[in-house]
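Just scan my protein:

. . .
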Amino acid sequence: MAGGRALSRALERVALGALVFLATSNRPLGRVAGLTLRPDWASGALAVLIVLLALLARRRLPLSPALLGFGGFVAFQLFSSVANRGAWPEGVKFSLIYILALAYLCATLILVRDADTAHWVLSLVLVLAVVEASVSVLAVLSSNLIGVPSPGPMLPRVFPRAEGAMSEANLFSSFLLVPFSVALWRWSARPRPAKLQGAACLALTAGLIFGLTRAAWIASLAVGWLSPLRLRPARVRVCVLLASAAVATGLLLGSDLVLRHGRLERTGLYDRLATGVLTGFDQPLDTRRTEMRASVASWRTSPWVGHGAGSANTLIQDPGNRWRRPTKPWISNVFLFVLHDAGLVGLVLFLSTLGAAAYQWWRARGGFGDRTAALDHEAHGIGLGAVLLAWQTTHGLWQMYGYLYLGLLLALSRLASPSPARAAPGTPSMCDR
């Protein structure tokens, strides 16, 4: 009997490892029958299998307001797509992504049933993020110094950026925010292997800097400000972190200057920090303003139910100049994306999901008797909030790593004691800072 339980737990760990590993990459692998094959979408298909097996085994699904809210959101996306199938027949196909996401969320809640499993999953995410960040930094440096192209379908670019196993640097940078937050919180714990966690923080800091994503920079600064490292006993570690950020910035700028033959105005850091201020033209921001105008104008034609999943592909922006061709903008802001696809009803369901998850996380704080679980729970909530902040400029609603993070947050919050009195008196909390 004990052997059967041990085998079952081992299989669950294998399944969880596969879900995590596949969710960290969205690079297209090809097309079959008109469908794009991606590792993270494959993880959604695996999640469907896990949920079906759990139902056959009569295992109860741990329901919560956040999970029910997201289920309603997915159902309405499908409804909107069916209602608009005449104008946008692809909507039903894109709705499948949300169904996979719901299955992924359910599978995570089924498999993560204790704090040790949640800690193991977060550690695995942290290891994968550190490896991807380190390899990406080296790839960018090699591209700048010796002209070796960085891997990725988005290249050649104006300047190389850290992309990891993602198809875009912005998505990779937002993916790094949760492991960055977890590493910061664990680095503050005592007595933990501080040097190992510190090295992880430094690698992830370099990955975020080399990603050249301003929204992720702002989000990571917010994470750093809220972390325990800003307390007086951790000032030495703060100095180490700032010094590593300065070194990473210097390496990126120096190697970029080599590639650009000393022309500062052509480097990635100059483009991100100075071009818009000095010239009045900021290409990423101007592009997003164009997206917003096009998406709002289109949404007004169907404000309540939207135009169906993935209908941003139908947008056309008239440049107002006969010498320029019309463009096809993509909606990068997560809330505008939901509003355009599913209308006001879909946006309310999406916001209710986020609100329920945030309330569940906040209510669970201080309810852990285990210090490690309390650290992971608080760090994970702050990191997921940072991801949502970064998604205001480039969202990852169709990437499974967001649902991995949300599922882990709900699972950890569920494990907290309903009574704060049961929490260990030394458990750190933002309210105590």
Q: What stands out?
A: Strands lie at 30-32, 35-37. The two ends are 47 Å apart (CA to CA).
